[in-house]
Amino acid sequence: MLYNKSMPIKEDEGIVLRSIKIKEIDKIVTIFSRENGIVKGVAKGALKFNNRFGSSLEPLSHIKFIYYEREGRELFVIRTAEIIKSYFEIQRDPKIFEGFSQMVELLEEFVPQRVKEETIFRLLKACLDATSKGIGIEFSLLYFKFWLLKGTGFLPNLSRCKKCGKEGGGFLSPSMDGVYCNDCKIINTIEVTDLTSKFFSFISKNPPSNLKDFEIPENERLKMENLINELILYHIERLPKTLGLRK
Ligand SMILES: [Zn+2]
Fold first, then answer.
1. How many structural domains is the chain composed of?
2. Fewer CB near the last or first residue (10 Å), C or N of the chain?
3. What is the CATH number of the domain that holds 20?
4. What is the pLDDT of residues 78-121, one digit of tens each?
5. In the 3-class helix/strand/coil scheme, how is 162-220 assigned residue by residue?
6. Angle 236-204-117 from CA coordinates, rounded to 5°
């Protein structure tokens, strides 16, 4: 369908999550946009030699783009896109790229399409910036998962006992809605160590770039990762799959 004047031209900015080749010369691009949340558009001719998109549609590029919607069609048409920040160094490093691929998958699980989620948009952007400035991908990923759970309302308070209010670690409740201290625990579930509790309290008050100030032994980091992954798995299994009802 060609463009006609009844289709308003809009502008947004966003981070490219995925780019898929179609019909040899076009791309379908999934973008986490600041104004409209996760959206999908087609970039016509994006694979032609010397095309107008350049490298702007590479995954993880932060771009400004101009698009229009087509009536009754899910995909909008991306007319132009330009790079605000490329993150080439992240795209090139397989280990770091793999970490961000996990973030993209989680976004697609937790964030419904076309719902503005500016806080989570800024979270992804902050993790990209922190990683490009040298914060380890394992810490950026932990930070991202923590805030994704918090931002979508699935993170229990991990720094005080749900029953008596005592600060510090404890054991996660079976329904994953809080932590119980040693005196109040019902059964042994996943342990939340004092360091874990302290670390999560730190990341709830600091940007990811401040993670460089926090020393974590590898075995403790693995415990934190395990804890956050258990919370994520627990909630993913319970998310209704119908779009719009997932929050
Ligand atoms: Zn207690």
1. 2
2. N
3. 2.40.50.140
4. 999 999 999 999 999 999 999 999 999 999 999 999 999 999 99
5. CCCCCECCEEECCCCCCEECCCCCCCCCCEECHHHHHHHHHHCCCCHHHHHHCCCCHHH
6. 55
| Per-residue model confidence as pLDDT tens digits over 59-83 | 999 999 999 998 888 899 999 999 9
Domain boundary among 47, 64, 86: 86
Q: Decide if 59 is inside a domain.
A: yes
Q: How far is the CA of 170 from the centre of ligand 1 (A)?
A: 8
Bridge partners, residue 10, by sequence: 67
pLDDT at 126 over 60: yes
Q: Are 186 and 173 in contact (CB under 8 A)?
A: yes
Which domain-ending residue is among 86, 119, 142? 86
**In degrees rounded to 5, what are phi and psi of residue 191?**
-75, 135
Centre of ligand 1 to C-alpha 114, Å, is: 41
> Model ipTM?
0.99
Asked if 40 and 74 touch (Cβ cutoff 8 Å), the reply is yes
- Distance (Å) from CA 158 to ligand 1 centroid: 12
Q: Are residues 82 and 105 in the same domain?
A: no
The answer on 137 and 67 residing in a single domain is no
Determine the distance separating the centroid of ligand 1 and the alpha carbon of 141, expressed in angstroms.
30
* CA 167–ligand 1 middle distance (angstroms): 9
- Residue 44's domain comprises 9-86
Q: 74 and 147: one domain?
A: no
Looking at the fold, whether 158 and 176 belong to one and the same domain comes out as yes
The rounded Å distance from CA 214 to ligand 1 centre is 27
| Angle 103-151-14 from CA coordinates, rounded to 5° | 55
CA of 103 to the centre of ligand 1 (A): 33
